[in-house]
Amino acid sequence: MAGSTNIPTPKTLGDILRGERSRGFQNTAVIGGLDLFLRRWADVFGPLLGDIASYSDLPPRLREEWATDTMRRINALQHDNGDPPVTDAAGPTKTPAAKATRRPPRAVARTPLSLETDVAQLAAVTKRNLPALQRMGMSKIEDLLFLFPHRHNDFRDLLPVAQLVPGEEQTVIATVLEATVTGQPRRRSTQATLGDDTGTFRVIWFGQGYLAKQLTPGTRIAVSGKPEQFRGRLVFKSPVYELLRDQDDMVHTGRLVPIYPLTEGLRQRTIRRIVREALDRGLGNVGEHLPVELSRRNDLMPLPKAISQMHYPDSEEAHEEARRRLAFDELFLMQLAVIGRKQDWQEAGRAIKHESDSVALNTFLTSLPYTLTGAQNRVLGEIMADLGTDRPMSRLLQGDVGSGKTIVAIAALLVAALNGYQGALMAPTEILAEQHFLNVTKALSGLPLTRGDDNVISVSLQGHDKRITVGLLLGSQTGKVKRETRELLAGREIDIVIGTHALIQSSVELPRLSLAIVDEQHRFGVTQRGALRDKGLRPHLLAMSATPIPRSLALTFYGDLDVSTIDELPPGRRPIRTRLVDRDHRDSAYEFVRAEVREGRQAFIVFPLIDESDAIRVRAAANEFERLSSEVFPELRLGLLHGRMNISEKEEVMGRFQRGELDILLSTAVVEVGIDVPNASVMLIDGAERFGLAQLHQFRGRVGRGPHQSHCLLLSDAAEGEAINRLKIVERVSDGFQLAEEDLRLRGPGDYFGTRQSGLPLFKVAQITDRDILALARREATDIREADPGLSKEENLMLAARFRGYSSSIESVIS
């Protein structure tokens, strides 16, 4: 400072604020902007203004509020010094006494905020954008911290003007030389000439005429985008920009810039500014909840840093490390929840002990036309060991297509019935439930069997006095059938019941239920599984999956279940040859089917739909049945099977196909599981791109069950792209567990299970040991339980997480 005459006074600041008012609070009253002026003279105005926020970050309305309050402070100081008041920036000055009772404006206060603070307290949130934030579910500071961008734009490539290349994404920092408004009154645009020491270029912002007032000559600005060559000069059209106050703190340019999900009424610049303020003021209140040793052993980034790096990463590597930390947390907390649930289930009460070494069970096993594999015997032994204790079983049974899970489940259900109790098998769809009922009927066909109605059979077993009755209960059955079936169940006259969600309705009584089996386990939520096992006498639970589940996900999402795996196929099964067939070779595929039939084999042709749809352009089973019967295979015997047929019709069609009375069976996804035709050697899937990898593998498993070489043809009308890449994986990979890993890699865990989870690359997450889980459970949940003993263990585990950013996925597991 050269002398006291160069030092600004409060009156100087008042003059600047009056100039701001006359310019509509556009931050143009002082060269370089008000922030630069206040930083330069912080020692002069600091005692008067305190902690000064960024004026340029505020919308005009909040700038006016701040300026008005500052003028009142200046007038109070003038009054104390005996000097005349300065005119208020917002109009005539009010009495200085008003200053004593007015709180500092929230828009300026940069004090830390708790995670529970309402977003309306942020300076960047206005009455105009608040409703949009609320529509996005953003109500508290913590919501914004966990509003992670879905991608980042890379604006790190800073270049001088002379090195800019047309057509490439680049960022340049330049000085405004001139800026003008062009266009019609209702469609004003801003044109500007910018430059640095190496050259100049033009910029045009369409429909943003207001920018011209901010781009005063001498203003430094960062511009990011793809320049074009126009009449020998470089031109940026509507690029991303940022007016620079501090080059090291750029938000919109010059870095990996976050791109957030939006809703109507929000722009990227606005949400970016809001989230940045939430980070600045709320991130300091995010605590670390993982034990130090656990974090160190797995080389995990601290949680506050991980959240920050998810929004504004220093590099791609830092962003990946942040994703890994948050994925670890989510899986860790899920495992806490499911392990707690398992402990609750096993410690809450005793189950029924079953005797499994009986003549009747051996009679059933020896009546089968085949011998169980070593893997089947091993898994059956694990299940029988569980059933033989009074500790409730909680087990997952999985295996590849055709490995023989169903027969193991039937044996377990028979054990319950032979001990005088009831067993239940619940499938996610009526089609699967019906097929299970038919499979049970077939499995028992080697024994003296009596058929009642369509939905009830009974069988006699040597060594057991009472006949074993099996019933089927579906929501689509007539009221009379459902009522009669419920009465039989309540009266203990049905020993084994097979059904869908109808089994967990309050009107269904299972007074002697001792074993509950859930098929296609990954299609049920924990609530549905729990509702079934909460019936009866503290039943044992066996969950089955016909889709092999990657080990990492089995341990994570089904941590409340012990896992049994049938990893051996019946002897003599040949690998199925799988081929992708494009639309130009459809006729060749048909000829291949005809050739196999001539050799005495049979074939499946599967379609995505029953009838054609205007919305989905694929071939449908009913329409193709007519065409193929009359035009393509007129000399062959074709049958049609789909979900709208009743159980008798389905059984009749499947029976004809199994007896060899049909050459080709046209079907929808009804054949995904449950059909065993050893003579079938071809599975032709028409519209294969419409099915998932797991479904395609299930279809493929319908063939290859006999001594003949079998084939799976994936017929697709798709020309290229992701759909074809997926089909090529099925063509290449025949092992169900390997295919499940590929499916997980492609879709992520959320889509894999049909629910929305983190979407993070979970296969990259470090493994978590039981010791880690129990250590954190003791450290977190125990203390919280003592603080609030009225909550359940699951609720205490939820509180242990502390952050609602994780709670949505945990709730889906423990609700």
Brief rundown of the structure:
With 815 residues, the protein is of the alpha/beta class.
Describe, in plain words, how this protein is organized in 3D.
The protein has 815 residues and is α/β, with parallel strands linked by helices.
Topology overview:
Layout: H1 10-22, H2 34-40, H3 42-49, H4 60-81, H5 130-135, H6 141-145, E1 151-154, E2 170-182, E3 189-196, E4 199-205, H7 211-214, E5 220-225, E6 228-230, E7 233-237, E8 240-243, E9 256-259, H8 268-282, H9 292-297, H10 303-311, H11 316-347, H12 359-367, H13 374-387, E10 394-399, H14 405-418, E11 422-426, H15 430-443, E12 449-451, E13 456-459, E14 468-473, H16 479-490, E15 496-499, E16 513-518, H17 526-533, E17 540-545, H18 551-557, E18 562-566, E19 577-582, H19 586-598, E20 602-606, H20 621-632, E21 638-641, H21 647-658, E22 664-667, E23 680-686, H22 693-700, E24 711-716, H23 722-732, H24 736-752, H25 770-787, H26 793-801, H27 804-814
Parallel strand pairs: 4-7, 10-17, 10-18, 11-15, 11-16, 14-15, 16-17, 19-24, 20-22, 20-23, 21-22, 23-24
Antiparallel strand pairs: 1-9, 2-3, 2-5, 3-4, 5-8, 6-7, 12-13, 13-14
